[in-house]
Specification:
Blueprint: H1 4-140, H2 143-159
Length: about 170
């Protein structure tokens, strides 16, 4: 059996061997692992910073566009108002031209209708005059007068060289 002093010594030597082995293992294997992990963390931080700066740049662009939004909306409204006014003027001009055209066409139709009515009135007046003259002639015509007119007509025909019934 070992004495307590030997046991402590043996345990101390074992502990030192174990601690040395662990220390060597940590330095040999842990250093590169810690270095690679440290490098990964640094790269992650760098990519995070890059992403943050890109996001900040995009946010600045959005802010700039939002700042110009009122100006753009105002410009669009002004443009729309001008376009609306131009269209209203065009519609007014077209309507005025249509009114003038329709007025001219109506004048021509009225003139044509007036001429036609005058022609119909003249024809009716001529027809009435002929009918009135015929009535007057019939009223004044007696059988003796008819016979005398017929004899005179026949005499005029025979003087003209036209022979009837022979």
């Amino acid at each position: 059996m070992m004495t307590p002093r030997e046991t402590i010594l043996f345990e101390t030597v074992n502990f030192l061997i174990l601690a040395g082995g662990l220390g060597w293992l940590i330095v040999k294997q842990g250093g590169p692992a810690l270095a690679s992990r440290s490098k990964e963390i640094a790269e992650g931080l760098a990519s995070g910073e890059l992403a943050k700066s890109e996001a900040d740049a995009r946010a600045a662009q959005v802010q700039a566009r939002l700042a110009n939004l009122d100006t753009e909306v105002s410009a669009i409204r002004t443009s729309a108002k001008e376009e609306r006014e131009r269209e209203a003027d065009r519609i007014r001009r077209d309507a005025q031209a249509d009114i003038i055209r329709i007025h001219h066409q109506a004048e021509l139709e009225i003139e044509s209708a007036g001429k036609m009515a005058q022609r119909e009135v003249r024809q009716a007046a001529a027809r009435l005059a002929v009918e009135l003259a015929e009535r007057k002639v019939r009223a004044r015509m007696s059988p003796e007068m008819q016979s005398a007119l017929l004899q005179g007509f026949l005499a005029d025909l025979s003087r003209g060289g036209i022979q009837l019934g022979e």
